[in-house]
Amino acid sequence: PILVKREKKAEAVRKAQALLTKVGLAERMDFFPSQLSGGQKQRVALARALASGARALLLDEPFGSLDVTTRAAVRGELRAFLGDVGLPAIFVTHDAADALALADRILVIEDGLVTQAGTRDDLLARPRTPFVAELVGLNLYRVQVGPGEQLREARTGRVVFHVLTHGIEGSALVAFPPSAVTLAADRPVSSAQNTFLGRVIEVLPMADRLRVLMDVGVTVAADVSREAASALQAAPGRSLWTSVKATAIEVYP
Fold this sequence. Notes:
The chain contains seven helices and 14 strands. By secondary structure, the protein is of the alpha+beta class. Strands 7-6-5-8-14 form a five-stranded antiparallel beta sheet. Strands 9-13-10-11-12 form a five-stranded antiparallel beta sheet. Strands 1-2 form a two-stranded parallel ribbon. Helix 3 links the parallel strand 1 and strand 2. It starts with 8 loop residues before the first helix and ends with a strand.
């Protein structure tokens, strides 16, 4: 049951039916909680919040008790639902997939401090801290960019990346996706301006690929297919050439 405050019973039932219809559960109105799935219970919770007359929603880890399959389905339903009802919502989560799928604007909190705020595209393109870079799956380094015309040196420790800076000099950040990194057993003959001989640190299974962490003086993540990893014999300790084009590297203050 959904409580609709200060309403006569008939009106309360009508509003409850309307709310349950909105969340796709009209046919479950007479069911007990034990007869509902985890995703259905989450939708009932949303209907309860709307029944209170709320003008904003606070969703604190709403998917925490859901399995992976249900979580993905409910996330899609919630995105559509929030768009339909037009209520502002604050969504608290530790899962980057939730934030990237649902949020118009994202605030990242580390050790109690907001370290970055912006749109999803802001975070995906220009992470500001290693934590944010890990959340969105990018390689990120703090560098010193030297003077030059167009192709410049961006130094981080002992490693120098060649980058297109568009006028940026001095302290900066560089970022690029693991998908932009290629691995090879032999030194490649290519147009990539950044080629390093490195050592495999770890191979991590992903949904449809493998993420290979390379030590080239800094840690670089590369995404490769399972077939490519097998052909390269990618395993901890294995030496491989690691390449990334300057055009794939984002440089920003």
